[in-house]
Amino acid sequence: MKNILTYGWYARIFIIVLWFASFWFRTTVDFEQKQALLVALVGLSNLTLYLIVAMRLPLLTHSQSSAVLPGFSSQLKTALLQILGFSLLPTLLLLPNIWMSLGLISIMLACAMLMAAMIYLPKYQIIFVAIMLLPISFESLSIVVTFDQVMSFFVYILPAIAVCTWLLLDKLVVYRKPSKHIAKMMLMVNASLDRTLAAQDHIPPESQNILMRWWGNLNFGHERKIISAADEQQQRLSIRKLIAISCQSSASFSKYSYITWSLATILVCSVALTIDQSHYAAFIPLISIVPAIIIGTASITLFQMVNSKSSYLARLSILPRFKDKQSFAKALIKYILFNQGAIIVFIALLVAITILTFEHLSWGMYFKVCLLAIALCLINSALMFFCWSNKSTGFQKYIFIIVFNFILFMLVILEMTHNGIDSVMSLSSIFTVMVVCAGLCAYTIKRYLHRFTVTV
Amino acid sequence: MNVTQFSISASSGIPIYKQLCTQIERMVLTNVFSQGEVLPSVRQVASELEVNPMTVSKAYGLLEERGVLTRLRGKGMAVAKQAQEKSNQERLLVLSAMIDELVKEATLMGLTEDELTKLFKEKLGAEYSLADIKE
Amino acid sequence: MSTVISIENLNKSYDKQSVLSGLNWKISQGDIVGLLGKNGAGKSTLLKSLLNIDEIDGGQISVFDEAHHSLSLLSKEKIGYVPQENDEITWLPVADLIKFRKQFYQQWSDEKVNYYLDKWQIDTRKKMIELSPGQAQKVLIILALASMPELLIFDEPASALDPAGRRDLLKELVSLACDENITVIFSTHITSDLERLASKVAILDKGKICYFDDLDKTKENVVQLVMHGQQLSQQQIPNALRSDIKGNNTNCVVTKVDLMWLEEQKQQGVKIDINPMGLEDIFLEITAS
Fold it and tell me: CB–CB of B50 and C192 under 8 A?
């Protein structure tokens, strides 16, 4: 059950990242200055966890098993309590001040309740909006509230909140009332790991919200124009382009994703240029992990999309456009490598822009970061080709390794930006890593192609 | 030509083409199709009955061999001339087969000859008087 | 009759489980073959293997007299495949989907595409995800037909449709068979579909094609015999699949009535009833033995 509730690699990665970041913060940064930030980091990670759990709760409470299996409700309650307890561990371990811990626990429990309420009964979302508006209303009413005051308040109401949570939990595990809203939610989240992203493409347009529809139309409109133009002019699209279209989804890293990230970076840099340099330290962790997030999510998305489309691609591979399956495999390899290459070039540009603005890395370091990024993409590609060269269909372990690599990369980058000197790796060791990764990639490509050589 | 006069059972143990053959023959014998009349096309029948057109053409082909139907250039399959002349003989043959079945069944049930004859006369009487009323 | 597909000694496993083993099959041009098998027997696997969508583990398959893994361009154009599941791109409208698919072929008939789009009244502005399952299936069929194939392979057509939709689709397949004059293979576990459409029936069981013959002949040959006053075992009856003794009589199912043996029995005064069997019963008997 816990697996179902916490399903979703993106959220899991994000939460783990935040926990790592909090840990790093705790051990390296002076707590007194940054206590609000630390609390915010831990709080944010827990909030994300509660959000994904809350979103997946309807799958269990409204499943058929819930009505039929006798111990279901108590099992669900146990699972939820375990997740709750686990989520509060970082709070207890990382926050040095017990007062702060208790206060945060109290806030977290309240948030958990609010999340669950919002998911089941959308009208409670108004409370969320109200909370967002509180700071502004306080400002306008000239009410001054300090961080300590807020914490103290929550510590005092902790017993009440704990009791409420307990009662609500009991009610939650037996909640069965159906609604259109819940049905839509279930459709969105009811997907296995392989099909998480693909499921988004299978939501009927009427059920999609405006943002999703706009993004979808934007993304796919580009593809559709290409297809129509090629058809009108009787031109043949390249095989790589055909595969790209087949693997496209609303979650893919498309042309517009590039544009969005570029704009976001330019925006952040522009803002940074207008403010005082002393504030830069706050931006740097974010700027540092952005390349890792882009590579990580783009690689995982690519892998998942090709996997979810594997039966479709297999069907296309026997069509007259491909001379034989080997030529199809070669085209797929080109597509993957091109995709990864484009991302690396993009990252290199982005990081260069941020360095020009924030000057948080030397150009020597920048070179190292680029090499490590290339190594990461090579090893990810190698993993993908290795997975596809085996005829089995188990993708999970590969995704796990890719995620692990991505976290490792991120930690390395964070360490490099923090310490500012060649603390982590020398250039020669980075080169070695790159060569090894390139070698692995070449080996796995060969292995993948070998799968389609015919042994008569 | 109303095609819906044909009816077949796809899941029967009797092949569809045989069912069609039997039906068409019966229809020719009972004058539902008159001599020289053109039967609906293979495509029409196949479409109406939702069966494989090859099955229909197999049935038509078989009937052509037996001389029940004949192929008219450009028009399709039509009822053959001789079919009508053979009719009486054919009719009796068909009925003879049916009576065979009837007698077999009766014997199995243990009916005596008298009981069977009595039943037969009753049914005959009822049917022919009904025919009189209709006329 | 030229052979379109010839399969010899095909072996295929999935996740270390053998699905097909030592399978042999020959399909001639113009056949409309219904592949019958229980759920999970490996019908999809067989079709995907012969198309080289899935790689085989052993054996030889030739399509249009060429090795199935290295078909010439011309042969590839002649094959059309309609999968069981709709895994097409969901975000392209049908019109663009057709244009996209056209990119993969040299031969393509826009007239045919438009004919069927018109006949089946498909709104080409809609995306696949917006169409009903029946309409989506029809789009997949159009995509398969557009290259004017000589060999059409359907994996469980109409399996996802309700009875009305299935009836409708079958009607279309029947007229397709009439119009197109091509070799068709379709797999199904619904015998009534097969009885209407197929000219030949193949039964896949325990990894092999255990039965393959003309449908009409099958119905004529595979019959139930009831022998009154006799108690015979299976070995004593030629071509028997099984034999049950009930009271004084023997019920048995034979794959072909041995006429000489029948004559012998009649002369001995044995009363024998010959009962024809529907395809469903035939299938159950053959797969049970």
Answer: no
Residues 6+ apart with CB under 8 A from A198: A191, A249, A304, A305, A308, A309
Q: For chain B, how many structural domains are there in total?
A: 2
| Domains assigned to chain C | 3-217 (3.40.50.300), 222-288 (no CATH)
Tell whether C126 is within 8 A of chain A (Cβ).
no
Hey, is the C-beta of C85 within 8 angstroms of any chain A C-beta?
yes
DSSP helix/strand/coil, A195: coil
Q: Check which CATH number belongs to the domain holding B15 and give it.
A: 1.10.10.10
Q: Which of C102, C107, C127 sits opposite A231 (nearest CB)?
A: C102
Co-location of B74 and B103 in the same domain: no
Structure tokens at B59: 């049935």
Here the tokens at position B72 are 């008219």
Q: Are residues B16 and B59 in the same domain?
A: yes
For the CA atoms of A219, A224, A226, A231, the dihedral, rounded to the nearest 10 degrees, stands at: 170
CB-based contact, C32 to chain B, within 8 Å: yes
Contact C247, C165 (CB under 8 A): no
In terms of residue numbers, what domain contains B122?
Answer: 87-134
Domain identity same for B39 and B91: no
- Give the A window 325-384 contacts with C, CB below 8 Å: 325
Domain map (residue ranges) of chain A: 2-190, 212-450
Select from B48, B63, B83 the last residue of a domain. B83
Give the model confidence (pLDDT) of C219-274 as tens digits: 999 999 888 887 888 888 888 888 888 888 888 899 888 888 888 888 888 888 88
The token duo for C6 is: 């010839």
pLDDT of residue A329: 92
Average pLDDT, rounded, for chain A? 78
Q: Identify all chain C residues contacting B51, using CB atoms and an 8 Å cutoff.
A: 174, 196-197
C81 with A315: Cβ contact below 8 A:
yes
Minimal Cα–Cα distance from B52 to chain C, Å? Answer: 5
Indicate the pairing of strand C151-155 with strand C79-82. Answer: parallel
pLDDT tens, position by position, A197-209: 455 556 555 656 6
Residue (of A306, A293, A367) closest to A337 by Cα position: A306
Neighbours of chain C (3+ CB pairs under 8 A): A, B
What is the CB neighbour count within 10 angstroms for residue C112?
16
Q: Which of C53, C55, C102 sits opposite A315 (nearest CB)?
A: C53
Give how far Cα C61 sits from Cα of A183, C58, C72, Å.
47, 10, 14
Say yes or no: B59 and B92 in one domain: no
Taking CB atoms and an 8 Å limit, are C91 and A250 in contact across chains? yes
Model ipTM?
0.88
